[in-house]
Amino acid sequence: MKEQNKLNTKQESEPVIYIKGLYKSFGELDVLKGVDFTLLEGENIAVLGKSGSGKSVLIKIIAGLLKADQGEVSVLGKRVDQINNKDLDALRLHIGFSFQNSALYDSMSVFQNLAFPLTMNTKHLTSKEIDMAVDEALDAVGLKDKRNQMPADLSGGQRKRIGIARTLILKPKIMLYDEPTSGLDPITSAEINQLILDVQKQYNTSSVIITHDLTCAKHTSNKIAMLLDGKFLQIGQFDEVFASKETQIASFYNYNFIQ
C-alpha cells in the first residue's frame, strides 16, 4: 500500500456536519448521550468505538435515516432534525452512504446497480450520459472491466468497491463509510483504505469513517474520534489520541493490531 501523505485541512474550512448535544435512545437503552461533533470541508474523520457504542446510529442520524431524540444536527447548512421530507431527500443526494454489506441488488448487473440511482434521481440524463457516468465511477474504483458482471460473481473487496462506486455516481459532497474494511483480508483492506484517500482527493469529499479497524483509521483519516459510553471521549490526530493515559482508550488500542 502506498504510504499515506499527510492530509491537511484548511483552517478556514466551513463545517459540512455540525452536531451539538445529540441524544438517542432505543427504549431504555441510551446509545448517544450528548454527542458534539464537527466535520470540516475536505476532512476525513474516523469514528472508533466498541461494537454497540452507537457508531452506526450516529451516521444514520446524519443521513436522516434515524431521528435524534434531542440535539442539533446540521448537514451542509441544513438542519436534518427540522427539514421536511422533500428537502431531506434533496439533501441526501449530496451524501454518499457506503453500507457495511455494500447493499448491492443481487438481481442487477454492476452496470444496472450504478445506473439505478441516476435513473431515479436525474431524469434528464440520456442513455449515453448514464453510460459515461457509470464508466467514470467504475474507473474511479478500478473496476471498469466488471460492468457486466453480477454481484454474486464478485469478491468481497470488489463488492465493497462497487458499493463505493454507486455512492460516487451522484458526486456527493459527503461520504459516510460504515465499516469499509469489515470482513476483508489485510491486502484488500489496504486497497480499500487507499481508495478512501483517492476518493477524498479526486472528488473533494468530506468523510465520516465508522470503523473498529485501527489500521483503517490511522491511514484514512485526518482525525479520529473515540466514541465510548455514548460520548466522544477524545477527538484529535491518531498518535495524539492514543498517547492518552485514559484507561478506556488504552484498552481499546491494546485489543487491536496496528500494522
Tally of distinct domains: 2
Residue-averaged pLDDT: 89
The gyration radius over C-alpha positions equals: 18 Å
Q: At the third CATH level, what is the topology name of the largest domain?
A: Rossmann fold
Give the helices and strands as they follow along the chain. EEEHEEHEHHHEHEHEEHH
Task: Note the topology.
Elements: E1 15-26, E2 29-40, E3 44-48, H1 55-62, E4 70-75, E5 78-79, H2 85-92, E6 95-98, H3 110-121, H4 127-140, H5 156-168, E7 174-178, H6 186-203, E8 206-211, H7 214-220, E9 223-228, E10 231-236, H8 238-242, H9 247-254
Parallel strand pairs: 3-8, 3-9, 6-7, 7-8
Antiparallel strand pairs: 1-2, 1-4, 4-5, 9-10
Helix pairs in contact: 3-4, 3-5, 4-5, 5-6
Written account of the structure:
There is one protein chain. The chain is of the alpha/beta class and 259 residues long. It folds into 2 domains: 26-94 and 176-259, 3-Layer(aba) Sandwich (Rossmann fold); 104-171, no CATH class. The protein has 9 helices and 10 strands. It has helices at residues 55-62, 85-92, 110-121, 127-140, 156-168, 186-203, 214-220, 238-242, 247-254; strands at 15-26, 29-40, 44-48, 70-75, 78-79, 95-98, 174-178, 206-211, 223-228, 231-236. The strands form 2 sheets. It has a 6-stranded mixed β-sheet, sandwiched between helices. A hairpin with a 2-residue loop joins β9 and β10. α4 crosses α5 (156-168) and α5 (156-168) packs parallel to α6. It is globular and about 55 Å long. The termini are close together. 38% of the residues are buried.
Short recap of the structure:
The protein has 259 residues and is of the alpha/beta class. It has helices spanning 55-62, 85-92, 110-121, 127-140, 156-168, 186-203, 214-220, 238-242, 247-254, and strands spanning 15-26, 29-40, 44-48, 70-75, 78-79, 95-98, 174-178, 206-211, 223-228, 231-236.
